[in-house]
Design brief:
Length: 363
């Protein structure tokens, strides 16, 4: 055998030995991140079950009534003695964080809470670590809005067909309650720890600010005609007329006499004691399940048909017998807004003006 052939064989043997040595050593070199291993199907199922469990918890909120029984101790998230309805805690990041522990045991695994952030359309993103694997849950607020059925509707206070319209090609959802301070803080990526009065409506925002908040939530500022549709029982079109009813919870034209306490549970007006007001409540429910259709706070409504008429006046500032405490009528948030042509009257209602707002969504 020639020297050249011996040299080639020797080099090949050395090369093979180096490869084998590398393979053996690689088994003993520690990996920096064990989580790069592909998790087993069983482990994946545990994470999926945990995700479903936390999503259900987020949606249901305080079903045990712990807040009202004063069993919660998390003042950085939930202030004590808030006058709120239990629905406030549904799909609520404050309640979720209040009940979240640093490490949570689930199916014999320790889930470590790493933190949270807010994503697109006000989604609540929570981060966890389990068995070396980091993951996050994206929790959407499915509690806030309700569906407006497809139908023909008639907007405005007149009984004729001046403002006849339909939503036959739309899937429209409307916020059940007013946008509150927590909702605004979330879309603005503010800290929600120690947030002042998170349960109270965001009042007197400028129109462009209200539009911005709704846009960041994935919607738009609630339009006046959609509000009218949501508060008036639908009826068939007869001679180009859709019947309109003055009150959102009944088809009666006149209200029955009732005790003030019963009235205030249904429609919070000037006669009701403001100290007894419950935020995020179910006052004045409509046929699709939005609240504060009358009473509570004045509400800004984007009026495409007649822009100056943009305010639902009925509120805790207006007496129950006042003409403003009926469906369809609009005031104006402007000092000298011309509303006579819209309402058929130009009655002055009060000196003080304040307004809440809500959003609508096309899905």
């Amino acid at each position: 055998m020639s020297n050249n052939n011996k040299s080639i064989i020797t080099k090949l043997l050395v090369f093979v030995c180096l490869i084998l040595l590398g393979i053996v050593l690689s088994q003993f070199i520690p990996r920096e991140n064990a989580s790069k291993k592909k998790p087993s199907d069983d482990f994946n199922q545990v994470i999926l079950d945990f995700a479903q469990y936390k999503a259900d918890f987020y949606q249901k909120g305080d079903i045990e009534g712990e807040y009202f029984d004063e069993k919660l101790n998390c003042p950085q998230y939930l202030q004590k003695s808030m006058d709120v309805h239990s629905s406030f805690f549904e799909c609520n990041p404050l309640f979720y964080l209040c009940k979240t522990e640093g490490v949570e045991k689930f199916k014999n695994y320790d889930f470590q809470f790493l933190g949270y952030e807010f994503g697109v359309h006000a989604s609540f993103i929570v981060k966890y670590l389990v068995a070396g694997f980091a993951f996050q849950l994206k929790l959407k607020n499915t509690c806030a809005s309700t569906y407006l059925p497809r139908n023909v509707y008639n907007a405005g206070p007149k009984e004729n067909s001046d403002y006849l319209w339909d939503n036959s090609l739309e899937n429209v959802y409307i916020d059940k309650n007013y946008i509150n301070n927590l909702d605004v803080a979330i879309v603005q990526n503010q800290k929600i720890e120690n947030l002042k009065n998170p349960h109270m409506p965001a009042l007197n925002l400028k129109r462009d600010k209200m539009q911005e908040v709704c846009s960041l939530r994935g919607g738009q500022l609630l339009q006046s005609r959609y509000f009218d549709a949501a508060v008036n029982y639908p009826s068939l079109v007869v001679n180009k007329v859709i019947r309109k009813f003055p009150y959102p919870w009944t088809k009666r034209r006149e209200l029955r006499e009732e005790k003030l306490e019963a009235h205030c549970l249904k429609n919070f007006t000037k006669e009701c004691d403001k100290k007894n007001y419950v935020y995020h409540s179910d006052y004045s429910p409509s046929w699709i399940g939005i609240y504060h259709a009358l009473g509570s706070h004045m509400e800004y409504l984007d009026n495409k048909f007649y822009p100056p008429a943009n305010l639902k006046v009925s509120s805790y500032l207006i007496a129950k017998e006042d003409i403003w405490n009926k469906n369809f009528l609009r005031g104006s948030n402007a000092e000298n807004g011309d509303i006579k042509r819209y309402n058929g009257m130009n009655r002055e209602y009060l000196e003080k003006k304040e307004w809440a707002f809500r959003c609508q969504y096309f899905k």
